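seq:
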Amino acid sequence: MNEIDNIEISLANFIKQLESTTSRFSELRKCSFFDPIPNEYLESISRLTQIRTFAAGDKLTREGDATHTFYVVLLGKTTVYCNGKKVGKIIYGECIGEGTFFNNEKVSRTATVIADGHVVVAELDKTSIEILRCDAKVKDYMDKALLIALFKKLQGANQRIQELL
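struct:
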């Protein structure tokens, strides 16, 4: 067996392991995005997540498409493009599509996100998000996690602007 075969087998085992709610919870707990959320609330979140995989070059999101899913990267990294220009990276533990949580109206994606290699994400769809928003405590903790994530993205954008000046 060569190195690529070993990587493929490890990836398949990781994805299979995530079928278990307990394993999914453990992986979510490792993600910095979920740091503000206590275990009891993260358990309910993990039960609502689906695991999705993307290969190198796959688009996780497309700029202008309707926003109906939210992702947290569990494995891999992605490149973010706005208006066809590379504007950043999203890596392990970070989120994609946070606007889905904050908007009750239909909004469109502001960026195209493309997998750099194998990417595994925890996905919450609009229905799952609505379920989470019905529990005031879960909503409060998710809002806090999302605001921290947005603040980090803003800091990164500000740093990038300073580098360009």
